[in-house]
Write a structure and sequence with these properties.
The chain has a single domain, classed as TIM Barrel, CATH 3.20.20. It contains 7 helices and 8 strands. The chain has an 8-stranded mixed beta sheet with strand order 2-1-8-7-6-5-4-3.
Length: about 200
Amino acid sequence: MADLIRGNALAENEWTWVKLPESTEPVRKAAGKVVMFKLTGEPAAPEDVVAACAVPAGKVMIPLTVWLRRREELAARVAAGEIAVWLDSHEEPAELAESLGGDLNRLPLIGVNFPKFIDGRGFSIAFILRTRYGYRNELRALGDVLRDQMFFFRRTGFDAYLLRADQKPERCIAALNDFTTPYQTSTDGITPVFRRRIGQKAIA
């Protein structure tokens, strides 16, 4: 079973991660759109697959496609704090924001899936959720969550990490502090090296 890190410590995972059932139809994803092709407008997940996706009782984290098409059905559970939504790496935060009237903080948790280690689009999604949409609640990294990414997860806005099953949680927690001085700006408010150097020259 995968371990969950919240903040800087192991935590109990009270949320069930719901995924779409398997489909016999091939799914082709265009980056930035939940469609197979922009010209056809075909949904990335067939209607019957979305309809067949079970949403169990308790706290559940559901796919964006399920939320977009079944949100009226789930409205009462959102109000009760039982529904979270997760985005795949090709999906747009704007669609989630629009579906909630711009108030993402109605959701207690948003997940972002990293299907492969080499797919870094989830970092941009997290940054956008925090900076453009002002999301303040738990932002959880899902999928191929590895020790080598931990520092960068935190810098781009994540504060919870569902580790890949083969990862050692103590090493991943330590990796949150791999570097003391970043080279880029991000969501954490730490002044990067280049700005410190510019400031020192100005003073000189």
